[in-house]
Write a structure and sequence with these properties.
binds zinc ion; four-stranded antiparallel β-sheet; alpha+beta; single chain; 48% helix
């Protein structure tokens, strides 16, 4: 398991920065070219590999046009092809769901999954059609990155204890020396990202080299529910990451206010431009509507949320050898358009960060992460299994006559899902609802219920309130 580390440049001279920006811009053209050629069904789909693209460009002399050093564009081709492959993998997730919906025959499913995995889907009309549908033609949007191979840079500590990273420039033997804010030497392949006058040096290290890998996990089996006010609530009733709600609310309020002000400034600039005062419009654009500070603040907010979330996950893993959580691979394939709603966007990003934290902390500390189908876990009572109602952070079960703390109730339900014989990870949510209803009805009549629609009608007749349930 690899984890990404980032080193930052400190006090980098603007001339050097500009030279790196120019190099990244030219390499961005290389990326665009790769996406243009290979970012579709015909490209990677036909099994084209980065080495073949390189050889082809070397043969027809295309590489000369980019005006960058050979190692730089070759690494960029490799990196862009890896991006395209990742893009394809994301589309495959969608196609797998389509396969599950299409057939219930295990042999047929297996055949299609294998064809997808080994990239032999082109000959299957259904798979090819689905991939075309879900694999939107991608475009390169990366114009600010330089990938440097491990043997193409060096790092030296100077007399004053400062670490200097030396990377290739635009011309042979004209290296660029970047002062770093850390004394830890980056290793392996580097990704330099140029943002706001500063160079971010991204590199990967082995998680086993990290200190936290020596902190062992606990022994219990614990279910967790992901939330907004707290990052996680566990099935023991304990909340973790309790400052998450404040962080998100504060950020949401700040963004709303700032976006309102930016919109006002933008309209002033537009009006000025319409009246012919282009100098004023330009001034506002340059001085008041920039992105450097905005992006930096966004990055800082994300770092704070990550810290809160990782701390929460570590607390859970302190107790647990097995963590049971909602499966999030499905909800984060970009299925839902979140639009401009700031709250939902922040919440979605946070949920993704929580999923990532659960995965990486579990791997590092040796606990098992068990994903379960979380459908209706926040709407049913963990004691009797019946549907109940939500009111704020409370869950009330009319059948037991008990009010639970909603997140704790959900976490216990999630814990129980791990041992559920009928509800598998990919059971559709309508089916889950049916199973849950059948169980409680069977419980009441002490008889196995065969006709489910009759059972539903009976249930509705007996409990008119139950049809008015809040959706999760
Ligand atoms: Zn109950």
């Amino acid at each position: 398991m690899k984890v990404t580390r980032i080193a930052y440049s400190m006090g980098l001279n603007p001339g050097k920065y500009a030279a790196l920006v120019e190099q990244a811009r030219r390499l961005g053209q290389v990326r665009s070219e790769v996406w243009q050629r290979c970012g579709s069904i015909g490209g990677v789909g036909s099994g084209l590999r980065d080495r073949q693209v390189r050889d082809r460009w070397l043969a027809d002399g295309k590489h000369v046009r980019f005006c960058v050093l050979a190692n730089a564009w070759k690494e960029t081709v490799r990196d862009a092809m890896a991006d395209i492959a990742a893009n394809l993998e994301a589309a495959k997730v969608e196609v797998r769901w389509a396969v599950l919906r299409r057939t219930s025959d295990p042999v047929e499913r297996k055949r299609m999954f294998t064809a997808l995995k080994t990239d032999r889907w082109a000959s299957d009309p259904f798979l090819a059609r689905q991939l075309r549908k879900h694999w939107k033609r991608g475009h390169n949007r990366t114009h600010d990155q330089i990938v440097v191979r491990a043997d193409n840079y060096n790092a030296v500590v100077d007399g004053r204890g400062r670490l200097w990273l030396t990377v290739p420039g635009l011309e042979r033997r004209k290296m660029v020396r970047i002062p770093l804010s850390t004394t830890v030497t980056p290793t392996g392949t580097l990704r330099l990202i140029l943002r706001g006058g500063r160079v971010e040096v991204h590199y990967q290290i082995d998680a086993s080299r990290m200190r936290s890998s020596q902190r062992p996990c606990g022994e219990a089996t614990i279910g967790v529910d992901k939330g907004y006010t707290e990052a996680l609530t566990d099935s023991d009733g304990q909340p973790h990451g309790v400052h998450l709600g404040e962080l998100l609310t504060a950020e949401s309020d700040r963004l709303k206010e700032r976006n309102r002000r930016r919109a006002k400034l933008r309209s002033i600039a537009n009006n000025a431009a319409q009246r012919g005062n282009h100098a004023k419009a330009q001034r506002i654009k340059a001085n008041n509507l920039g992105t450097v500070k905005r992006d930096r603040q966004a990055a800082r907010h994300r770092a704070r949320v990550r810290t809160e979330v990782f701390t929460a996950v570590h607390e859970v893993v302190d107790k647990a050898a097995t963590v049971i959580a909602e499966d999030l691979t499905r909800t984060f394939a970009g299925r839902k358009k979140l639009g401009k709603n700031i709250n939902r966007r922040l919440a979605a990003w946070t949920k993704g960060a929580t999923a990532e934290a659960l995965k990486s902390v579990s791997e590092r500390r040796g606990s098992a992460l068990v994903p379960v189908n979380a459908a209706y876990t926040s709407q049913t009572c963990h004691r009797c299994g019946r549907f109940g109602g939500r009111s704020g952070d409370r869950f009330y079960c009319t059948s037991c006559g008990v009010v639970w703390q909603a997140d704790v109730n959900a976490a216990i339900n999630i814990l129980q899902r791990a041992g559920d014989p009928d509800i598998a990870l990919h059971t559709p949510h309508q089916r889950v609802k049916q199973i849950l209803q059948d169980r409680t009805d069977r419980h009441r009549t002490r008889l196995p219920v065969q006709d489910s629609s009759a059972a539903t009608a009976e249930r509705r007749a007996n409990h008119p309130n139950h049809s008015a349930l809040s959706k999760k």
